[in-house]
Amino acid sequence: MRWRTTHKTLCLLFVATLLHGADANAAKEDEADDFQELKRTFERIRGESFLGPDAADLNFDDLDLLGNPLKEKVKGWPEDLVVAPVPGYSPQLGWTLKLAAGYFMDPRNPESKSPASIIGGGAMFSENGSTAFALGTYLHLMDDKLRVVFGAGKADVRYRYFINDVLGSGQDIGVDVEQDGPLYFTKATWRVWKKMYLGVGYMAGSVNTSVRRPPDFLPELPDDISPSVKFDIGAYIIPMEIDSRDDTNFPRSGWKIDGVAKFFRESAGSDFDAGVYKLNFNHYRPMRENDTLATRLIMKSSDGDAPFFLLSTFGGSTDLRGYPSGRYRDRKMYALQTEYRWHFNDRWIFTGFAGFGEVAERFKDFGDDFLPATGVGVRFVLSKKHKVSLSSDIAVGNDGVEFYFGVGEAF
């Protein structure tokens, strides 16, 4: 006789605000109490005759509780280990296959409201020969007073770099570029006031850039890709974060404000002096019983001798879906988008989104060339406990249709 029990979570989930809602804390505590009450009730009634003679021998901890799909299919699979193969497609890389794995570590103190820490890794292989490998960890320490991030990766990426207004013709052309090299980074932030974190960080690596097939009709390529060049990169990082989300993986209420300044300097090991700045605002508002309205505004800027791969880019899976990543780039950019997330059931979530943005050399040039986009998507929840999902989106922008596959929400 096989018993199956579904424990419906009472916790409302979602990411990013200035205030941590008391209702969200209460929901988390209620869920733990509810689970313990379920266990006590099971132990109390399992010997009752109406359940049948086999029930008295059952152990609550052996029940097949719904959660991580791999836990349901593979005997002994840890609930906190999530593995997902993710197929995908993009005009830049062609068809891709990504393998992502993450192990979630709950706080040692069961009374702590700190988010789970995670250790993860991933690999990517694409139709055009691009590859990438990465390992990293995100630690929530000292009851989430201290947040520490480490990461390391190596990539060999081939894509098309667009050069605007070639020879004053008003036409844009694409140049096939290959970049490879390692990258390492770390940062630590400390909670200085309520939900505000400030910290320091560092990144280092190298980037080899070369043109695979230079166009015959282009007499001169930009210095940072012509014909082959290597940059050593090193930067001091100053991160800032305000986080009042009710959940880090699937928030339903709150704010998350992220700011980061990267100063590439010779003293940090960089071959060039430049500044790269990013500020984004994510807001989450609960709708109906389980749905969410999410809004994101992001602004980027660069100065100094920043090479083309550090300029502000528009598009991709986060800012803004509907345009190839890197198709539009300049020193300044912004993107505004909103998304409705319909929680159909415990496994399936459907989304609809729309937004617009621009790139320009200077902030005062904004307003001349809006880039709108809209689309729909679907999510399959891989882990109910940690609210990690496989995502698939289709979006339409000025240049056509784009497809996206990944793990987690866009923002």
Fourth-level CATH superfamily: membrane protein fhac: a member of the omp85/tpsb transporter family
How many structurally independent domains?
1
What is the straight-line distance between the termini? 44 Å
How many helices in DSSP terms? 2
* CATH architecture assignment name: Beta Barrel
CATH class: Mainly Beta
Q: What percentage of amino acids are in beta strands?
A: over 45%
Widest beta sheet: strand line-up: 3-4-5-6-7-8-9-10-11-12-13-16-17-18-19-20
The overall average pLDDT, rounded, is: 79
**How big is the Rg?**
24 Å
Task: Look at the helices and sheets and give the structural class.
Answer: mainly beta
Report the major sheet: 16 strands, antiparallel
CATH topology: Porin
Which percent bin holds the helix content?
under 10%
Q: Spans of 5+ residues with little confidence (pLDDT < 50)?
A: 1-35, 48-55, 60-66
The H-and-E topology, N to C, reads as: EHEHEEEEEEEEEEEEEEEEEE
Q: How many DSSP-defined strands?
A: 20
- Overall 3D form: globular
